[in-house]
Description:
Structural class: alpha+beta
Amino acid sequence: xxxKVLERFPAGAPRGSWPAEEYAARRRAEGLPATVVMDLRSxxxxxxxxxxxxx
Length: 55
């Protein structure tokens, strides 16, 4: 399985702010199955969708 990164957000968002989750929710509302994952190496949240291996 591979994933396409739609957007990345720094992990240091202000307390109570969830920009990656909010962005993913807007993409899901548009019909994209967006998911938020944590990239520990870059200390960032990534909004991803499953990519077709043919691309």
